[in-house]
Amino acid sequence: MTYFLRIGYSAWTRWMIVAVLTVLMGAAPAPARTFNGNYPIRVGATVGMVADIVREVAGDKADVTNIIGSGVDPHVYSPTRGDAAVLLRSDIIFYSGILLEGQMTDILAKISRKRPVHAVTELLSEDYLLRDRQTGHHDPHVWMDVQGWSKAVAVVSSKLVEFDPASADEYRKNAEAYQSRLERLDAYARSAIHSIPENQRVLLTAHDAFSYMGRAYGIEVKGIQGISTESEAGLKDINRLVDLLVNRRIPAVFVETSVSDKNVKALIEGAAARDHRVSIGGSLFSDAMGPPGTYEGTYEGMIDHNITVIAKALGGKVPARGMQDKLSTD
Ligand code: ZN
Q1: Ligand 1 centroid vs 262 CA: distance in angstroms?
Q2: What tens digit of pLDDT does each residue of 38-86 get?
């Protein structure tokens, strides 16, 4: 609901950018909807997880620009003029969808009239998607379930094949290789979470980004804020979660790299006041990946990091540096 009630500076800025785009696009000749053969293809991608898929599937055939970078919260991200320029220069654009990039909806819709714009989650069925109980909105955090995200790889592959049929074989081959790596990641996630003692399989985080992970790998998930960081957590929510921590003797809660940790700290203090010591189990990548150029700055590294940190802090058995022995130790 907050999506539609929020007005003010950011709405005004967005309106301006869309207005400027309208003028620019009216003046520019309409680009072709299929590729002209001049590699690399210029691809615009919103979040890092989407950019990563395109890099894996397209290889050196594409030059990918990631618009919403490391540590940035996509729920409240307002596109800048620079972003509009990137999108206008792109031959094809991919975004995650299901309202994750809520404030980019207008600009993506506008641009889609002139060039291909695709949501990588478009193959997911109504049966698969989770809903937020309070708002009724679909939960956009699909990448937390590796099998679900593997369907996004299929979307990117088929859209690239359609856009550039000359390289179809390469895109299909790369997508298959990536999907089999993701199968191994999925199996690791399942066994790592399973190694946590059953009564401690509770994941408590700053916002509701982990429900798909919970369903896929069998861990109960509680977020202090709802599925979008736009909503505020109330005192009642905090108290309810302190009860849960104390009653279940849960040893750790988690912060997120793209969300403020103030609510998580309130939980720890609340539990301490009732003589239950809770630690911060680590910092999780919820809606943005780690820094570019690092293992954690890839989708595989992001998930490996999250799963390994969660399992370790809640008493599970996992390799210290994760599935591929590549995680940084600090
Ligand atoms: Zn989120």
Answers
A1: 16
A2: 999 999 999 999 999 999 999 999 999 999 999 999 999 999 999 999 9
Same domain, 105 and 201: no
Both tokens of 274, joined, read 């009732």
**How many DSSP H helices and E strands does the chain contain?**
11, 8
Q: What is the pLDDT of residue 3?
A: 39
SS3 123: coil
Last residue of a domain, which of 136, 168, 188?
A: 188
Domain containing 270: what range?
A: 189-313
- Asked if residue 124 and residue 68 are part of one domain, the reply reads yes
- CA–centroid distance, residue 73 to ligand 1 (Å): 7
Tell how strand 62-68 and strand 117-119 pair up: unpaired
Is there a single domain that holds both residue 175 and residue 231? no
Query: What share of residues in the chain are helix, strand, coil (percent, to 5)?
Result: 50, 15, 35
Going from the Cα of 174 to the center of ligand 1, the distance in angstroms, rounded, reads 28
258 C-alpha vs ligand 1 centroid, how far in Å? 9
138 and 93 belong to one structural domain: yes
What is the 286 CA–ligand 1 centroid distance (Å)?
A: 6
CATH number of the domain enclosing 242: 3.40.50.1980
Of 80, 90, 94, give the one whose Cα is nearest residue 49: 94
Instruction: Give the mean pLDDT per block of 10 residues along the chain (330 residues).
Output: 43 68 56 80 98 98 96 94 96 97 95 96 96 88 98 98 97 98 98 95 92 97 81 81 93 91 92 96 95 96 98 97 92
State whether 276 and 141 are in the same domain: no
CA 228 to ligand 1 centroid distance, Å: 5
Q: 256 alpha carbon to ligand 1 midpoint, in Å?
A: 10
pLDDT score recorded for residue 4: 39
165 and 262 inside one domain: no
